[in-house]
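Appendix B, Record 12. Input sequence as logged:
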Amino acid sequence: MIDLDRIETLLDQGVRDKVYPGAVWAVGNSVGILASGTAGVLDPDQPDLRMQTDTVFDAASLTKILAVWASIGALWEDSRFDLDRPLGAFWSEVTGHPIGQVSARQLLTHTAGLPARAQLKSLYGTAPKAIRDGVLSEALQRPPGEAVEYTDRAALILGYLAEHLSGQTLERLASARTWQPLGMDSTRFGPLPLELAARCAPTELDQDTGIHLKGTAHDFSARLLGGVCGIAGVFTVLDDLARFLQHMLEPATSTEAGFGPEWTSYSLTVQTGGLEPARGLFWHPAPGASDDEDVWAHYGFTGTGMWIWPAQDRWAVLLTNKLYFTRDRQPLTDVRNTFRQLSFS
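Logged structural output:
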């Protein structure tokens, strides 16, 4: 049973403690939304503007799921590549480079041995082609398969791979294979047009302009690459995430969404053997959940997060703009863990 009163109390307290200006949340199943709500305001400088269920959020690393994981899954289900074949065996752009010995599975489980940080501008400059060439020819920091080390580079490389295999930009591929078929009409890469930016939750203060970012991706790599990359850059709304998670629980036979039950089931299974922390394919076991519960999660740095519990036909979403106040992760981590417990109790 969903403990509505305690969820509302929890999220309202987060507003009072300045963990975030506001939040939008929902809990649902394969049929739809079972409960939802909002807390707080869009922007503390405009206290009359309350958070709304259609507020647009900078998804940050949820981009890795909504665009990259979904697109790679579509291409895998199309039999366009083998998860365990070295990339250099079928992708000439990386043949002969260190990344050529890495597999897509290792990228999806963060076991590829890539450098931990992106550092795109400092290493490669500002030209998109130079960045792509640099990332795809970069040395590994350890042998593939040796350790689980989260890095944004994995999603960036997989985004490039999806573009190579499909002959489309990541933006067009994700839209055509996932967002449009599922009716995710408010999900797109930024920068946002003015009418959508007006509904967007502001994030961190931009030191160059003195204004909180709103409708422009917070992630520096995404901004450097024009708003579109595998790392971040997607903006979305609660209802669109509900449609996405519903599809994961019970793929809609009437749509042409590229990824289906096989990819979802495979991804929500530990793929890292005895290595810790355990990982599926881009998804990871939810912190604090027991192995028996088998709950999976993915978070975004701006304050976004989603969970899925296939065995109980349940999902949950919590969207906040916590970066408006701070980069300190712990206060939101505590809220997230409690929210998950209350949603799936």
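The mean pLDDT is 96.
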